[in-house]
Structure formats: C-alpha cells, structure tokens
Amino acid sequence: MSESLVARGISTPDFTEGRGSPVTPNTTHGDFEEAFMSGYVRLARTMWLVTGNRFEGEDVAQEAMARTWEQLQAGRPIEDIIAYAYRSAFNLVHRRHQRRLAWLRRSTSLADVSMDPLESVAARHDVKRALLQLPLAQRECLVLTEWLGFTSEEVARVLDVDPGTVRTRVHRARASLRQALGGSDA
C-alpha cells in the first residue's frame, strides 16, 4: 500500500486555476493521498455502521472520496479533506435513505425487510437493530462521537450543524438505545 496513486496509474488532480496559480497553497496531491490512505478505511467502516450494510458503506465511502477528488481536480479549494469526504458521504447516505423511504412508502409489503443472516451473535444483532432504529441524524452523531471519538465540534463541522445540536442528538440516541436494549439510566 506504500505505492503512490501516480505509480498505480491513477491521474492526480490539477490544483491550479487557468493561469497556473495555486487554488489553495495548503492542499497538495500528497495531502489528498495521505488523507485517502489514512482515512478511507475509517470512513468505510463508519458508513457501514451508519447504513447497516458493509457493502453499501464501502460504496458510499468510495463515492465520497471520488467526489472529493473531483472537487480538487476542478480546482475548488477544500480546507479539510477528511471532513469534506465525511460530509459528502453523509449527504449520499441521506439521499439514499430518502429514496429508500420513498420506495417503502410505495411498496405494499413492508414485512419482507429482514436482518443480515450472517449476524449470528444475539447481542450484536440487538445492538445493530437498535442502532438502525434510531433516526438517521441521531445515528450519524452517535457513530461519529462514540465509535470514532470525534468531538461535538468536529461532528458539527462534518454534518454542518451546531455543536449543541450534535450533543442533543447524541443524548437522545443514547436514551433510545438504553431503552431499546433494556438498560438502566445509571
């Protein structure tokens, strides 16, 4: 994995505007490559938790990184590459979620929705089911703060909301999980 993107035949973004001046002196090809190599696996796992499906999570992460790359190739400055990729990923999840809800509303049979048969551990199954029952906004905030260890401020930047909103969503998500899993408030 130490082989660079260029060595693998992947074209690199052109960070110049029409006259060859840098769009942002702080963003380089190396910055994107470093962000990709260090952040992709974590982004894919995060999206797996958010979507509840490993393959959909990987698909969303790939699309988000591709969109980040395209923005850099177009010469648009990105202050924080990882935050931009996360925001793109969450936007993709929101759009997919909205399409899925629309399809479910039109669908006549909701009883066919089932859990992944490979999930054999009962506790894991219960946590996954409880997590998926959370509203998407609460699930996103909970995964980013509890699983990835982001601060409320970092999550707020990724999701483009206020830090107080993040804390409220996390509080409500924890309460919902506690209730769904039969835990106590202690």
Give an overview in words.
There is one protein chain. The N and C termini lie far apart (45 Å). The protein is 64% helix and 0% strand. With 186 residues, it is mainly alpha-helical. The chain is built from seven helices and no strands. The longest helix is centred in the middle third of the chain and has 26 residues, at 81-106. It has two domains: 1-113, no CATH class; 114-186, Winged helix-like DNA-binding domain superfamily/Winged helix DNA-binding domain (Arc Repressor Mutant, subunit A, Orthogonal Bundle). The protein has helices at 29-51, 54-73, 81-106, 122-133, 136-147, 152-159, 163-180. The model is unreliable at 1-6, 8-25, 108-113 and 115-120 (pLDDT under 50).
Quick overview:
With 186 residues, the protein is an all-alpha fold.
Low-pLDDT runs of 5+ residues are: 1-6, 8-25, 108-113, 115-120
- Largest beta-sheet characterization: none
Number of individual domains: 2
- Please tell me the overall pLDDT: 77
**CA distance, first residue to last residue:** 45 Å
Strand and helix order: HHHHHHH
Q: Treating each run of at least 4 consecutive H or I residues as one helix, how many helices?
A: 7
- The helix-and-strand class reads mainly alpha
Which percent band covers the strand fraction?
under 5%
SSE arrangement:
Layout: H1 29-51, H2 54-73, H3 81-106, H4 122-133, H5 136-147, H6 152-159, H7 163-180
Helix pairs in contact: 1-2, 1-3, 2-3, 3-6, 5-7, 6-7
